[in-house]
């Protein structure tokens, strides 16, 4: 039987996985856990775990695809220690596109991607695609994600995403379709 994780356990596991990465000077160390809508762990991944300069979220999808189980991601949640990328210098498909294509319903992240290499618009792209994006409020996760990227000391190793109301854990909406009174989030979206 597959592991069933609550949100806190899945987020902590994603942040732990970030420390499994081999540090390189031109890449972040990220961990990810992909769960079904029921919370069943479908796959885990971390940066460069698989061949081909793979990202953490990408590893999750590759593993499911190889097993012929990618459809199980539909309606699920991607827990990531860092905001999924919206652009890749390698030219490979960004993780935001992979989440959207797989039909993931929700993305939970510990920190936003710093602008060390590119300007990431992952949160904005995911929201524009109809996904719920949540910044996990537990500072332990933000600290773990930042520590995994301490090798990139020239820039801060992660800017916490904007905090959200504890009652909803959903990041505030922005734009013309936002609910009245919804605040636009700050940061590197």
TrEMBL record:
InterPro entries: CMP_dCMP_dom, Cytidine_deaminase-like. GO terms for molecular function: catalytic activity. SUPFAM superfamilies: Cytidine deaminase-like. Residues 155-189 are annotated as: Disordered. Coiled coil: none annotated. Residues 5-131 form the CMP/dCMP-type deaminase domain. This is CMP/dCMP-type deaminase domain-containing protein.
